[in-house]
Design a protein that fits this description.
Helix 3 packs parallel to helix 6, helix 4 packs across helix 6 and helix 5 crosses helix 6. The chain is elongated. The relative contact order is 0.12. It is built from ten helices and nine strands.
């Protein structure tokens, strides 16, 4: 039987010490029912997030992950780890802890975040590197970097960052003169021929994220010879799909339709490809992930007999990034998601 080129990864969230005794047995049943290949176990996620977690808090998740990993291994299923925050999605009504000497992210108006941090902060880089190194010691299949690993979209900041004093020094040094935020922003956003400040901003922003990614990657490689680090951002606009977990052809048909960008809707776009095979030319473009969320709408105009609600999962094919031509890598990365962090 030909090996399925796609990996089916189930995203698992629970609150250790509160509901893990019920959720882990349910997970093991679902893994069998849905033919899951890998389980991405989240830490400090969503509503149970405590801000930038302490290492004592991480210990609780590490213990749970060791247990889950051993149970999955008995089924031939791997475990990956998704630390839910890096610089942090938003302030979320929380603040940095007194012992967390992280430099906050600052927006173009000079507003300082309460929880979101500057990715170039050395103290934060040491912290996040240690978190990932400790996860890497579990030897997971993948270490996901959450999609808050970005400069934009960190409420309540205006657009995002980073325009902290340290970043303003970097911008000024490259411009050859002291710059105010207002002066620098005016140059970056000047219409017409791009102002030199725009390149300065782009270069420093790229170097900032590469510096943070490098800190994570080096720590992981020191702790594990096989662990992989990959970004968890959405690559395509497949957001909802309804099908029996084992009806993979239907799922891939919808993915293919969205990958070519013909329509923003899941249902009608897939109807013509319900029984077709996934196009080879598109499969080479899918790098890490398409999120499929539960919904009640049928796939296609006719729907699929036996279709039911599908729990959250991710569809993956992971070719090496060098398989992409440079132009395609640039275009695909223009939405703010990196093809490869480390």
């Amino acid at each position: 039987m030909k090996k399925d080129p796609f990996q089916y990864i189930f995203r698992f969230c629970c609150d250790p010490g509160f509901n893990d005794a019920e959720e882990i047995p349910a997970l093991l049943r679902y893994v069998d029912e849905a033919d899951i290949d890998d389980v991405a176990v989240f830490a400090n996620v969503e509503e149970i997030n405590t801000g930038h977690m302490s290492f004592d808090e991480q210990d609780v998740y590490l213990a749970m992950m060791r247990k889950i990993s051993a149970l999955l291994a008995e089924k031939g299923v791997t475990m990956s780890v998704n630390q839910w925050h890096s610089v942090m999605h938003a302030d979320l009504g929380k603040t940095l802890r007194p012992e967390q000497n992280f430099r906050p992210m600052v927006d173009v108006e000079g507003n300082e975040a309460k929880l979101c941090v500057c990715p170039l902060c050395g103290e934060w880089q040491k912290y996040i590197a240690r978190l990932y190194a400790r996860y890497a010691e579990l030897e997971p299949s993948i270490l996901w970097v959450e999609d808050d690993f970005r400069l934009h979209n960190h409420e309540p900041l205006a657009w995002g960052g980073c325009f902290c004093d340290e970043h303003m020094k970097l911008y000024s040094a490259r411009a050859g003169k002291p710059l105010t935020r207002e002066e620098f922003l005016a140059g970056v956003l000047r219409p017409g021929e791009p102002h030199p400040y725009r390149k300065i901003w782009l270069d420093v922003s790229r170097e900032t994220m590469l510096s943070a990614a490098g800190a994570i990657g080096q720590a992981v490689r020191a702790a594990s010879k096989q662990a992989k680090v990959r970004p968890a951002g959405r690559q395509f606009r497949v957001m909802r799909i309804s099908a029996h977990p084992r009806r993979r052809g239907a799922r891939l048909a919808c993915v293919a339709a969205h990958a070519c960008g013909r329509t923003p809707a899941c249902g009608p776009c897939a109807s013509a490809r319900i029984s077709g095979k996934f196009p080879v030319e598109l499969s080479a473009r899918i790098q890490y992930g398409v999120y499929a969320h539960p919904c009640n709408a049928p796939i296609g105009d006719r729907g699929i007999p036996g279709a039911g609600k599908l729990s959250v999962l991710i569809v993956f094919e992971i070719p090496p990034v060098h398989a992409f031509p440079a132009a395609e890598r640039t275009a695909a990365g223009s939405g703010g998601h990196h093809h490869r962090l480390v």
